[in-house]
Amino acid sequence: MEDPLFCYFIAEPKRRRDWLTTVMKVALALGQRQGVLLRCGEGRLVGFAPGAYPPSAAVELREALPLLPATLKSRMSFAKLRAALAAVREMAKNHPTDPHWYVSVLGVAGAAQGQGLGASLLGNIITRADTDAVPIYLETANRANLSYYGRFGFETISEIDLPGDSPPLWTLLRK
Protein backbone atom coordinates (compact mmCIF):
# COMPACT_ATOMS: atom_id res chain seq x y z
CA MET A 1 0.00 0.00 0.00
CA GLU A 2 3.02 2.26 0.27
CA ASP A 3 3.87 2.09 -3.42
CA PRO A 4 5.19 5.57 -4.33
CA LEU A 5 2.98 5.83 -7.42
CA PHE A 6 -0.20 4.91 -5.54
CA CYS A 7 0.74 7.30 -2.74
CA TYR A 8 1.18 10.01 -5.36
CA PHE A 9 -2.23 9.32 -6.91
CA ILE A 10 -4.08 9.30 -3.57
CA ALA A 11 -2.25 10.79 -0.60
CA GLU A 12 -4.85 10.10 2.10
CA PRO A 13 -4.17 6.57 3.46
CA LYS A 14 -7.76 5.38 4.03
CA ARG A 15 -9.02 6.53 0.62
CA ARG A 16 -5.90 5.01 -1.00
CA ARG A 17 -6.44 1.71 0.83
CA ASP A 18 -10.12 1.60 -0.19
CA TRP A 19 -9.26 2.39 -3.82
CA LEU A 20 -6.41 -0.14 -3.89
CA THR A 21 -8.71 -2.81 -2.46
CA THR A 22 -10.90 -2.41 -5.55
CA VAL A 23 -7.91 -2.22 -7.89
CA MET A 24 -6.50 -5.44 -6.43
CA LYS A 25 -9.87 -7.23 -6.59
CA VAL A 26 -10.07 -6.34 -10.29
CA ALA A 27 -6.46 -7.42 -10.91
CA LEU A 28 -6.89 -10.70 -9.04
CA ALA A 29 -10.15 -11.48 -10.85
CA LEU A 30 -8.53 -10.78 -14.23
CA GLY A 31 -5.60 -12.98 -13.28
CA GLN A 32 -7.91 -15.78 -12.28
CA ARG A 33 -9.89 -15.57 -15.55
CA GLN A 34 -7.21 -14.65 -18.09
CA GLY A 35 -3.89 -15.51 -16.50
CA VAL A 36 -2.42 -17.20 -13.47
CA LEU A 37 -3.37 -16.30 -9.91
CA LEU A 38 -0.98 -17.70 -7.32
CA ARG A 39 -1.50 -17.58 -3.56
CA CYS A 40 0.99 -18.22 -0.79
CA GLY A 41 -0.23 -17.27 2.68
CA GLU A 42 -0.86 -13.53 2.58
CA GLY A 43 0.93 -13.16 -0.76
CA ARG A 44 -0.59 -12.89 -4.23
CA LEU A 45 0.89 -12.91 -7.71
CA VAL A 46 -0.95 -12.28 -10.95
CA GLY A 47 0.95 -13.43 -14.01
CA PHE A 48 0.19 -13.82 -17.66
CA ALA A 49 1.67 -16.55 -19.84
CA PRO A 50 3.17 -15.70 -23.23
CA GLY A 51 0.43 -14.43 -25.53
CA ALA A 52 -2.13 -13.92 -22.74
CA TYR A 53 -1.37 -10.23 -22.20
CA PRO A 54 -2.62 -7.70 -22.99
CA PRO A 55 -6.24 -8.82 -22.89
CA SER A 56 -8.59 -7.65 -25.62
CA ALA A 57 -9.95 -4.10 -25.48
CA ALA A 58 -13.41 -5.49 -24.62
CA VAL A 59 -11.99 -7.43 -21.66
CA GLU A 60 -10.00 -4.41 -20.47
CA LEU A 61 -13.08 -2.19 -20.62
CA ARG A 62 -15.22 -4.76 -18.78
CA GLU A 63 -12.55 -5.16 -16.10
CA ALA A 64 -12.06 -1.41 -15.68
CA LEU A 65 -15.73 -0.58 -15.06
CA PRO A 66 -15.64 -1.36 -11.29
CA LEU A 67 -12.75 1.08 -10.96
CA LEU A 68 -14.88 4.09 -11.95
CA PRO A 69 -16.96 4.36 -8.74
CA ALA A 70 -13.92 3.51 -6.60
CA THR A 71 -11.88 6.22 -8.31
CA LEU A 72 -14.65 8.79 -7.83
CA LYS A 73 -15.01 7.81 -4.17
CA SER A 74 -11.25 8.15 -3.68
CA ARG A 75 -11.48 11.83 -4.66
CA MET A 76 -8.45 11.43 -6.89
CA SER A 77 -7.88 14.81 -8.50
CA PHE A 78 -8.30 15.23 -12.22
CA ALA A 79 -4.57 15.96 -12.55
CA LYS A 80 -3.69 12.75 -10.69
CA LEU A 81 -6.20 10.77 -12.76
CA ARG A 82 -4.51 12.11 -15.91
CA ALA A 83 -1.16 11.04 -14.46
CA ALA A 84 -2.55 7.57 -13.70
CA LEU A 85 -3.83 7.22 -17.26
CA ALA A 86 -0.48 8.43 -18.58
CA ALA A 87 1.24 5.76 -16.47
CA VAL A 88 -1.03 3.10 -17.98
CA ARG A 89 -0.26 4.38 -21.50
CA GLU A 90 3.49 4.39 -20.82
CA MET A 91 3.31 0.88 -19.39
CA ALA A 92 1.52 -0.32 -22.53
CA LYS A 93 3.98 1.49 -24.80
CA ASN A 94 6.99 -0.07 -23.06
CA HIS A 95 5.54 -3.57 -22.80
CA PRO A 96 7.60 -6.13 -24.76
CA THR A 97 6.11 -7.64 -27.89
CA ASP A 98 8.24 -10.81 -27.91
CA PRO A 99 6.84 -13.85 -26.03
CA HIS A 100 7.32 -13.46 -22.26
CA TRP A 101 5.72 -14.02 -18.89
CA TYR A 102 4.29 -10.82 -17.40
CA VAL A 103 4.07 -10.29 -13.65
CA SER A 104 1.23 -7.83 -13.26
CA VAL A 105 0.89 -7.95 -9.47
CA LEU A 106 3.19 -9.25 -6.76
CA GLY A 107 2.15 -8.28 -3.26
CA VAL A 108 2.42 -9.54 0.28
CA ALA A 109 0.39 -8.18 3.20
CA GLY A 110 2.50 -5.91 5.41
CA ALA A 111 2.60 -8.19 8.47
CA ALA A 112 3.62 -11.17 6.32
CA GLN A 113 6.45 -9.42 4.47
CA GLY A 114 9.98 -10.71 4.95
CA GLN A 115 8.87 -14.33 5.32
CA GLY A 116 9.76 -15.47 1.80
CA LEU A 117 6.22 -15.45 0.40
CA GLY A 118 7.05 -13.08 -2.47
CA ALA A 119 10.17 -15.10 -3.29
CA SER A 120 8.12 -18.30 -3.33
CA LEU A 121 5.51 -16.80 -5.66
CA LEU A 122 8.13 -15.29 -7.95
CA GLY A 123 10.05 -18.58 -7.96
CA ASN A 124 6.95 -20.30 -9.33
CA ILE A 125 6.78 -17.93 -12.30
CA ILE A 126 10.55 -18.16 -12.84
CA THR A 127 10.22 -21.95 -13.10
CA ARG A 128 7.38 -21.58 -15.62
CA ALA A 129 9.30 -19.03 -17.68
CA ASP A 130 12.46 -21.15 -17.64
CA THR A 131 10.41 -24.18 -18.76
CA ASP A 132 8.92 -22.07 -21.57
CA ALA A 133 12.38 -20.60 -22.35
CA VAL A 134 11.01 -17.03 -22.30
CA PRO A 135 11.87 -13.93 -20.25
CA ILE A 136 9.76 -12.39 -17.48
CA TYR A 137 8.73 -8.73 -17.60
CA LEU A 138 7.41 -6.49 -14.84
CA GLU A 139 7.17 -2.86 -13.76
CA THR A 140 7.74 -1.21 -10.39
CA ALA A 141 7.47 2.31 -9.01
CA ASN A 142 9.41 1.44 -5.88
CA ARG A 143 13.16 2.01 -6.16
CA ALA A 144 13.77 -0.50 -3.32
CA ASN A 145 12.25 -3.22 -5.50
CA LEU A 146 15.05 -2.87 -8.06
CA SER A 147 17.55 -4.63 -5.80
CA TYR A 148 14.91 -7.13 -4.63
CA TYR A 149 14.13 -8.21 -8.20
CA GLY A 150 17.83 -8.05 -9.06
CA ARG A 151 18.41 -10.96 -6.68
CA PHE A 152 16.19 -13.06 -8.99
CA GLY A 153 18.09 -12.08 -12.13
CA PHE A 154 15.93 -9.15 -13.26
CA GLU A 155 17.66 -6.24 -14.95
CA THR A 156 16.30 -2.72 -15.23
CA ILE A 157 15.61 -2.02 -18.88
CA SER A 158 14.17 1.50 -18.59
CA GLU A 159 13.19 4.26 -16.23
CA ILE A 160 10.00 5.96 -17.35
CA ASP A 161 9.54 9.58 -16.38
CA LEU A 162 5.85 10.23 -15.93
CA PRO A 163 4.17 13.63 -16.34
CA GLY A 164 4.33 16.31 -13.68
CA ASP A 165 5.88 15.50 -10.34
CA SER A 166 4.84 11.84 -10.48
CA PRO A 167 7.44 9.32 -9.30
CA PRO A 168 9.20 7.33 -12.02
CA LEU A 169 8.36 3.82 -13.10
CA TRP A 170 10.97 1.18 -13.88
CA THR A 171 10.63 -1.72 -16.29
CA LEU A 172 12.53 -4.93 -15.58
CA LEU A 173 13.29 -8.08 -17.52
CA ARG A 174 14.64 -11.45 -16.49
CA LYS A 175 16.11 -13.28 -19.47
Task: Characterize the structure shown.
By secondary structure, the protein is of the alpha+beta class. It has one domain (4-174): Gcn5-related N-acetyltransferase (GNAT) (Aminopeptidase). Helix content is 49%, strand content 21%. It is built from seven helices and six strands; from the N terminus they run H-H-E-E-H-H-H-E-H-E-H-E-E. It has helices at 4-9, 13-34, 57-64, 67-74, 78-94, 117-132, 143-150, and strands spanning 36-40, 43-48, 101-108, 136-140, 155-160, 169-174. A six-stranded mixed beta sheet has the order 1-2-3-4-6-5, with helices on both faces. Helix 2 runs antiparallel to helix 4. The mean pLDDT is 93.
How would you concisely characterize the structure shown here?
The chain has 175 residues and is of the alpha+beta class.
Helix/strand-derived category reads alpha+beta
- Per DSSP E runs of 2 or more residues, the count of β-strands stands at 6
Q: How many domains? A: 1
Top CATH class: Alpha Beta
CATH-assigned homologous superfamily? Gcn5-related N-acetyltransferase (GNAT)
Q: Which band does the percent of strand residues land in? A: 15-25%
Helix count, DSSP H or I runs of 4 or more residues: 7
CATH architecture: 3-Layer(aba) Sandwich
Order of helices and strands: HHEEHHHEHEHEE
Give keywords.
globular, 175 residues, alpha+beta, Aminopeptidase
SSE order and pairing:
Blueprint: H1 4-9, H2 13-34, E1 36-40, E2 43-48, H3 57-64, H4 67-74, H5 78-94, E3 101-108, H6 117-132, E4 136-140, H7 143-150, E5 155-160, E6 169-174
Helix pairs in contact: 2-4
